[in-house]
Amino acid sequence: MKQIPSSTADMLPAAAAFVERLRALFDAGQDEARIWESACVYFRELLEDRDLKRHASTWPKSLSIEGKPGNLLFYEDPDHGFVLNALIKAPGLKTSVHDHGKSWTLYGIIEGAEKVVRFDRLDAGPRVPETAQLVETGSHDVSPGYIDFVPPWEIHQEHNTNQKTVGLIVRSQRSGTFVQNRFELATGKVSQYDGPVQLPYKLCI
Ligand SMILES: [Fe+2]
Fold it and tell me: Is 129 among the domain residues?
């Protein structure tokens, strides 16, 4: 794998400022739920940044690497492990029903729109099960400026509209370093996977 970017030296100023603010939350020793709630406020400001929007217009049209979904990887924090990713979804794409394992995720839309459907577990099985019983609990539309807050183990499915969706993502740790569940609604079967392939990419002017 190419070297993982872990310096803010040549990053877009707004993105570097976001990273520094998030690092300060960790350095202050707050609990994770509070850190990610505060990070949401800072992330909303980052999503409004003009340079970021301009940069996003140069990202690839869709991101699928050897048939697997991919993320651009802009930054991985050397001390706290959080990462900055981008996701580009082709029009009409629907993800599996899945969770993000033990990680926290802030998912912000820069361009496009999609619907996120949420599910709850009805069974009392382990966090990483072989089977599970799910019930749909609702859905919401996600559009530019909106941040989808995904705590650990929350089960969901993303339905893209008929246009490309470009998202900026903050994750508490890099995909591939934790297990995620993928749920089959019809059969109740659950399988585990490593999440999107990570493609190092520069978020610089
Ligand atoms: Fe997801």
Answer: yes
C-alpha closest to that of 169 among 94, 93, 76: 76
Whether 3 maps to a domain, the answer reads no
Question: How confident is the model over 15-34, as pLDDT tens digits?
Answer: 999 999 999 999 999 999 99
CATH number of the structural domain spanning residue 149: 2.60.120.10
Count of domains forming the chain:
1
Question: Of the candidates 104, 65, 70, 105, which has an alpha carbon nearest to the alpha carbon of residue 87?
Answer: 70
Measured between alpha carbons, how far is 181 from 198 in angstroms, rounded to an integer?
A: 18
Please report, as a single letter, which amino acid is at residue 192: Q
CA of 154 to the centre of ligand 1 (A): 9
Residue 155 alpha carbon to ligand 1 centre in Å? 8
Share of residues in the chain with pLDDT > 90 (%): 79
150: containing domain: 13-200
Q: Are 140 and 156 in contact (CB under 8 A)?
A: no
* Distance from the alpha carbon of residue 157 to the mean position of ligand 1, in angstroms: 7
Does residue 190 sit within a domain?
yes
pTM given for the model: 0.93
Q: Assess if residue 176 is contained within a domain.
A: yes
Using the mean position of ligand 1's atoms as its centre, give its distance from the Cα of residue 133 in Å.
Answer: 19
Report d(CA 109, CA 88) in Å as an integer.
10
Report the C-alpha gap between 84 and 171 in whole angstroms. 7
Is there a contact between 120 and 137 (Cβ–Cβ < 8 Å)? yes
